[in-house]
Amino acid sequence: MAPISIADIVSALPSEDEWGPPTPSETTLDGVPYAPFSKGDKLGRMADWTAEGKDRERGGRQNYNRNFRDQQVYGAGASSLFAVQVAEDESSFSVVDNTRTSTKTRGFGRGGGTIFRGRGQRGTLQRGGRAGFQRVGAGRGQDRGYDQRSGRGGRGRRFGWKDYDKPQRNRDSSVNIRPDWALLEEVDFNRLSKLHLESPDGEDLDNYGFLYAYDRSYDKPPVKGSERKLQSLDRAAYNVTTSSDPIIQELAEKNEATVFATSDILSMLMCAPRSVYSWDIVIVKQGNRIYFDKRDGASIDLVTVNENAADAPLEASEAGGKQDSINTPGALALEATVINHNFALQTVIESDKDKVEFPHPNPFYNASEETEPLASKAYKYRRFDLSLEKDEEPLNLIVRTEVDAVLKATTGADQHIVIKALNEFDHKAQGAGGALDWRTKLASQRGAVVATEMKNNSCKLARWTTQAILAQADHMKLGFVSRSNPRSASSHVILGVVGYKPRDFATQMNLNLGNGWGIVRTIVDLINSLDDDEDEESEEKLKKYVLVKDPNKPVVRLYNVPYNTFEEEEALVEEPEEKVEEE
To answer: What are the start and end residues of every segment in region (RNA gate) (predicted)?
Structure first.
């Protein structure tokens, strides 16, 4: 085959000095126009906002897509010239569609509306992206001073929207931390909540006091408008601290245990991770014996109200003077304490017929000096074994527990019960914690009312349940007491009583008693691990510690304090009484 030369190729080219097909004057290819097209050609303009017609009616600027503004192709408008004209009639042809179509439109509020996704546009109901929610014709105040990107437009939720006007909570400590107190340990609640120790049910050592029978008529729901009023009864009741208890002193001398406490003090320690308000426990160590004590007038003796609520009651100073004086935390706690005392006295039948006497009388009552009759109360001294396998010596804990009444059974043994009362001050006031109106909802929505109280008073209910389990009580009676007038704290009515078994109630509120015993064992080990003097007299030397809950943080701190701490305050209280006697 003869080789091809460059001259042959050049001679085959057209006479014109051009490359490609010749430019037609009108039409080529049998009348079909040629549309010049190039993928590299772009328009010089960015956008045409003056365009009218169908696209403008559908949104104009909103339909302009910024992501593809530079990719408009030269010659794209000529594609309509290549539209195929269908000669046959296709009106008789149809496609069967088996998919279900729904004509129901989604909406919000009363008028509803269509949902659009994308960038926010005023005048439509939108969801998605950064627009939040907007309603048609929401008014001029909707987009004044709001940034849609932050989600504040219309019904949009912004981060922390409930907390924007809350004052800063700076609560005071339950005890004054003195400069001479030495900080030994600081433990946060996160560490305390991870502790666990299995403990046996305990054993009864001795029982003191007597019990009246519980009045079962309070279990019936009262008729509307005929609720019983809470009465104020004068009865002698005692709440003696651990080291001042004569029975505990006798048990300590007999070496029955090494750790001693009362149920109200121990329950506060076992339920510490649930607490919000500040509290303090005085710990006295004498040789190898440890006493969990409390100060006179300590906050542990008071019954808190809505301590765990998201919007807890405010002090008058925190609320800028707008808070009612009867709805402050201190006033509510004092009111709830009085309610609990009177409610337990009123719900028993003071009759010698059903009275249950224990082997020993009340250890704190002196008939020659007391003028008021005794309240229905039984003290059960119980021992718990907190020992571990690694312990060389057993670690026993003796607790003084209390029960309030006896439930007479038609068949079987009598049952011991603990009586407590929840109180309602004003379900519309600040600090109510979203509680329902007890007068209208307690009968129909009792479960919702109890669930709300579990949330707002988690620490208080946990303490009561722990005390009932420590006392081995068979039942708990929770009364619902409300103010006769929300603006007055002097008169109350009983709206109903609910009964629970302590173990079942603990399960409902997710109370783990093993965690409480682990906290107690950890504090006891911490006290025992502190360095003692090596003198021979150190065996009888007294040491005092104070365990304080931080008022604003979930932290407990252990301080080493001088042994005469708090004794000076007691002396100042007793001095005026002595002067009156001398006169």
So the answer is: 299-313
